[in-house]
Amino acid sequence: MTTEEIPVLAQFGLTGEQAEIRALARKIAQDRFKPRSLEWEETGKFPWENMEILAKAGLLGASVPEEYGGAGGTWLDAALILEQLGSACYVTAMAALGELGVQIRAIAAYGTEEQKRRFLPDVAAGKRICAVSMTEADAGSDIWAMRTKAVVDGDDVVVNGGKVLCSRADVAGLFIVYVRWSDDPGTRPIGAVLIERGTPGFTISPGRKTLGGEDLYDLTFENCRIPSSNVLVREDGFRRMLTAFNGQRCLNASISVGIAQGAQDAAVEYVKTRSQGGGLLGDHQGIRWMLADNEVEIQAARQLVWRAAANAAQAFPSRHEAAVAKVNANEMALRVTDRVLQIFGGNGWVKEMPAERYLRWARYGPLGGGTPQIQRNAIARELLK
User: Fold this and answer.
1) I need a labelling partner for 318 at 20 to 30 A (CA). Which of 146, 206, 280, 309 fits?
2) 202 and 136: one domain?
3) Containing domain of residue 187, as a range?
4) Sign of the Cα pseudo-torsion (330, 165, 245, 185, in order)
């Protein structure tokens, strides 16, 4: 029995439907996505085929409310799906993250009725990809330093500035862009607008290759004029968008758990067949202890991620629980995948073998959605309030 088959689901009150969602996501990920995971990395192509498979299975629209064509699922539903995708194909997991994460939840929570009806049904059907862009060249974790500015001009809003390291920009039809509504210092003037691909004044740079195989892009806005109906949040916008981003942190952590589990599964299979010292590699106590340490850490991290997601239900996860889950899962995945590469020995260094792949995939988690250092600051603030 593998870790994925151990019946721990009841601890979180998962319904039979959620158990089926998890099983379906695993089957699709292992059968359809895992065999081609290295191919998606090497070509740099967006995995449209995989997104269509997820959409037809009803998994891609899990975060879209039912009235707009989705499944109306919870954060835990999304976490269950992304964990399985992360165990098989990093590129596909990151592609699906937007449709299951903050972009869609922010529109569903803060968008106008017109915005929801205009954009969400196509997302659920896999016809429209959404991207979110917050990071700037001189504003990463220090979001208060962002300079991209939106100015109201009659019935329109004019956006000027630039963003960097935006994923999925090559295929996204809609971008949620964090903007500053005034020159006042601090975070209070920060909100967000919806900018559609092809809008005059909006350009996208050529992609930059990354360690995980997913290309990243820079965005430029030069007198980019959008209708005022495309404003997502303005008043108290930063607090609302930061709250929405707690969900992204939680789902980032779920992908990290999936990556670690995928690496662990690969290591277990490897030591069962690899000969060493007159027996199997798995007969050696040192190897067994590394596998046991992996198992302890994966199980613990999964519990924290599921707790944060389950407690959120249809709302956004709490800042504290999301931060705790993310720090733990991100750093756990690095330790687990490093041990797995060591278990594979020289074969772990070979590109065609899975060990080095999982180690590379694990490295993104601590970079995206807020670094562990930023999360630790948030955790400490909560403790010392």
Assistant:
1) 146
2) yes
3) 130-235
4) positive
Q: pLDDT tens, 256-303? A: 999 999 999 999 999 999 987 778 999 999 999 999 999 999 999 999
Q: Please return the burial class of 296, using the count of CB atoms within 10 Å of its CB with bins 0-12, 13-18 and 19+.
A: exposed
Nearest 10 degrees: CA dihedral of 296, 298, 300, 306?
-160
In order, the DSSP letters of 336-385 are HHHHHHHHHGGGGGSTTSHHHHHHHHHTTTTTTTS-HHHHHHHHHHHHT-
3-state secondary structure of 261: helix
pLDDT of residue 206: 92
Structure token digits, residue 261: 């589990």
Say which amino acid occupies 234: R
User: What is the domain count for the chain?
Assistant: 3
Beta bridge partner(s), residue 159 = 150, 224
Within this chain, do residues 55 and 90 fall inside the same structural domain, yes or no? yes
For residue 39, how many other CB atoms are within 10 A of its CB? Answer: 13
Cβ atoms 193, 179 nearer than 8 A: yes
Residues 277 and 213 in one domain: no
Q: pLDDT tens for residues 101-120?
A: 888 999 999 999 999 999 99
Predicted confidence at residue 143, as pLDDT, reads 78
Query: At which of 124, 154, 171 does a domain end?
Result: 124
Choosing from 181, 215, 235, the residue where a domain stops is 235
In 3D space, the residue among 368, 362, 349, 211 whose CA is nearest the CA of residue 294 turns out to be 362
pLDDT of residue 192: 95
Residue 176 bridge partners (DSSP): 132, 194
Residues 197 and 282 in one domain: no
For residues 30 and 36, give the distance between their C-alpha atoms in angstroms, rounded to a whole number.
10
Single pTM value for the model: 0.92
Q: Are 290 and 342 in contact (CB under 8 A)?
A: yes
CATH code, domain carrying 144: 2.40.110.10
φ, ψ for residue 150, nearest 5 deg:
-115, 130
